[in-house]
């Protein structure tokens, strides 16, 4: 399961935390649309090497333009073109920064997912114990 699919299964408050990672840094629409592609790239390497970052930036734009060309809806196609322009304006001169932003966001997403899973595990354990606690309380009442 992709990391983005795991995000979709999180509680709403945790999904909002993930969304907030992208507020001013990278378009959430692109994160969702290109989740599989984004997750297969080595953004950590891109955040350390200008050439790798530039290649990732170029590939991201090519992929995004491909999505745009395949888009049937005029409204969605226009929105993707606008997002593509915004990415170009923001990161054309700073692909290293873009790679660092994406790398950091993916790491933080993973932390949020892990927190969500820990919370689910604790909740499931509590749910399993609840019937046993009730049974013990009933037995305690009967014994007294």
UniProtKB/TrEMBL annotation:
Residues 2-119 form the STAT transcription factor protein interaction domain. It comes from Aldrovandia affinis. Keywords: SH2 domain. InterPro entries: STAT, STAT_N_sf, STAT_TF_prot_interaction. GO terms for biological process: signal transduction. This is STAT transcription factor protein interaction domain-containing protein. The keyword Transit peptide does not apply. One of its GO terms (molecular function) is DNA-binding transcription factor activity. It comes from the Eukaryota. SUPFAM superfamilies: Transcription factor STAT-4 N-domain. PANTHER family: SIGNAL TRANSDUCER AND ACTIVATOR OF TRANSCRIPTION (PTHR11801).
């Amino acid at each position: 399961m992709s990391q983005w699919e795991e995000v979709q299964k999180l509680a709403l408050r945790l999904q909002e935390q993930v969304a907030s990672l992208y507020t001013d840094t990278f378009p959430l629409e692109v994160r969702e649309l290109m989740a599989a592609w984004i997750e297969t790239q080595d953004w950590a390497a891109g955040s350390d090497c200008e050439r790798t970052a530039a290649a990732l930036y170029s590939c991201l734009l090519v992929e995004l333009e491909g999505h745009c060309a395949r888009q049937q809806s005029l409204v969605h196609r226009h929105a993707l073109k606008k997002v593509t322009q915004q990415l170009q304006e923001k990161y054309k001169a700073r692909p290293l920064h873009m790679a660092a932003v994406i790398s950091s966001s993916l790491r933080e997403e993973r932390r949020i997912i892990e927190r969500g899973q820990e919370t689910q595990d604790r909740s499931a354990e509590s749910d399993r114990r609840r019937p046993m606690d009730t049974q013990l309380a009933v037995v305690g009442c009967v014994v007294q």
